[in-house]
Design brief:
The protein is of the alpha+beta class. About 30% of the residues lie in helices and about 20% in strands. It contains 4 helices and 6 strands, in the order βαββαβαββα. It has a 6-stranded mixed beta sheet with strand order 1-6-5-4-2-3. A hairpin with a 4-residue loop joins β5 and β6. α2 runs parallel beside α3.
């Protein structure tokens, strides 16, 4: 994956709080099929934080990722832009502990909310021993969004 830098978990206080809220959200994940609990936390320009966790379904294609749930909650609360930062966490005991990144669908869903406010939020992709900081535009270059429909 292009873009982003690897770094230790040396987060500032605001980022550490955002990651903690994403971890707390992951504890509420409904993941009986994959046993892979994901949490997301979205920080807005007014410092509000909206969280989400993944919700699986026996019909696998109907599962919802944590980022999509958080964006849906934000939009449902009337937020239209102002997305400043995103944290995404997965289980610390699965895989190789590498930072987890939003899937393609979630990148597009996050982009929609970001473009509504003209922002390019930093995404904190959190792993066991490191955090990868990536601008959303680097995760989804040449993104399609609301402006394309004007």
């Amino acid at each position: 994956m292009g873009g982003g830098t690897k770094m230790s978990l040396g987060l500032n206080d605001e980022e550490a709080e955002l990651v903690a809220q994403a971890r707390a959200a992951a504890e509420h994940a409904y993941a009986p099929y994959s046993d892979y609990q994901v949490g997301a936390a979205l920080r807005f320009a007014d410092d509000a934080v909206i969280t989400g966790s993944n919700v699986e379904n026996a019909s696998y294609g109907l599962a919802l990722c944590a980022e999509t749930v958080a964006v849906a909650r934000a939009l449902g609360e009337g937020r239209r832009g102002g997305l400043a930062k995103v944290a995404v966490v997965g289980p610390l005991d699965k895989g190789v502990g590498a930072p987890i990144t939003p899937c393609g669908r979630c990148r597009q869903v996050l982009n929609e909310l970001a473009q509504l406010g003209g922002t390019d939020p930093e995404v904190l992709c959190v792993g066991k021993d490191e955090v990868r900081r990536v601008a959303l535009s680097d995760l989804l270059p040449h993104a399609f969004g609301p402006a394309h429909l004007d």
